[in-house]
Design brief:
Distance between the termini: 12 Å
Strand order of the largest sheet: 4-3-2-1-5
Structural class: mainly beta
Shape: globular
Protein name: Cytochrome b6
Organism: Chlorogloeopsis fritschii PCC 6912
Pfam family, one: Tsr0524-like
Largest sheet: 5 strands, antiparallel
Helix content: under 10%
Amino acid sequence: MDIGQKVKVYRLRDRVSNPIAQRLGQVGIIEGFKMTDGSGVGVVVKFNDDFTTWFFEDELKVVQ
């Protein structure tokens, strides 16, 4: 996964707030990366409505 790629949220690993849960099935663009728990990397995704949040890599699939 690279910055600028389109990704689709296809699953949510944990319980999340409603605004994030509503992103399931939506497509956004990778804006960057962040450290999650000291060893994992989260992917920061921005959606068409300017909402930005992060997901684990295994929660996303690259869209062509």
